[in-house]
Amino acid sequence: MMPGTFATLTIDEKVDYGYFLTDGEERVLLHKSEIIGEIEEGEKIEVFFVLDAQDRLYATMKKPLITEGTYAWVDVVDVVEDMGAFVNIALSKDALVDRDHLPFLREVWPEVGDKLFCTLKVSGNGRFFTRLATEDIMKPYFQMADREMFNKEVTGTVYRMIVAGSFIITEEGYKGFIHSSQRTVEPRLGETVTGRVIDVKEDGTINVSLLPRKQDALSVDAERVYAYMQARGGAMPFNDKSDPEDIKEQFQLSKAAFKRALGHLMKQGRVYQKDGWTYFKEQTEQ
């Protein structure tokens, strides 16, 4: 009887807090909280072995989502700064993805509700840990994308991160790469993101952009500029001839993007320019 393994045992004795099971030589407790369905003495049942907080072996009829050598998507249920991320593996105790196996940058650690593709690891002392799937493990799960996917929207989960960007596996099973230039914020490990296919490679993998399409980006940029003016009472000391560095510092936009946003607002009749300033349409001249 080893933690992390299954066995079929005989129900040997009923006690107030559950049952004792036996393999003919050793006995182990099946607590009543670990029972599924109706059982009775003399019956043979399959159980999984776990250690409790006092390092005592116990049996459960609950089947874990992952075991050693098997992989599945598991939900992050807690994140502890100096430990790592705990995931729900369908047992009474959650399993830990150690911080050493999470990204170096804390801000891209998974959050509660994110999903990780993991396997179970049992330490020498019987403790449960989880390990993230490597690229080799992920390979059999990938599907080949065809050129028809170009410019289509896809949703996927981040399973691996490198300096240049993030790898996702989409709902269809496509392997996607999000280059750092194709995002405004780096997604978390385990985060589900939706983006647009900007390239389909010969090997069937895809490149994905999380940036809005040009027409959507225009609206977003215009609203950013408008909100800035709103905070200033409806006027700002910027126009389409302002210094590019000043624009970049204030709005995090290129001068070209700023001019497009400003032109969009002017075309809508929401703002006008005068003497180097831009005003709300209803704003009186300063």
At a glance:
This protein has 286 residues and is an alpha+beta fold.
CATH C-level class of the largest domain is: Mainly Beta
Low-pLDDT runs of 5+ residues are none
SSE order, one letter for each helix or strand: EEEEEEEEEEHEEEEEHEHHEE
CATH topology of the largest domain: OB fold (Dihydrolipoamide Acetyltransferase, E2P)
Looking at CATH, the homologous superfamily of the largest domain is: Nucleic acid-binding proteins
Which structural category do the helix and sheet elements fall into? alpha+beta
Name the overall outline.
elongated
Task: Classify the beta-strand content into a percent band.
Answer: 35-45%
Query: Helical content, roughly?
Result: 10-25%
What is the CATH architecture descriptor of the largest domain?
Beta Barrel
Total number of helical segments? 4
Strand order of the largest sheet: 1-2-3-5-4
From the N-terminal CA to the C-terminal CA, the straight-line distance is: 83 Å
Question: Mind describing the biggest β-sheet?
Answer: 5 strands, mixed, barrel
Mean pLDDT: 91
Q: How many β-strand stretches? A: 18
Q: How many structural units, i.e. domains?
A: 4
What radius of gyration results from the CA coordinates? Answer: 28 Å
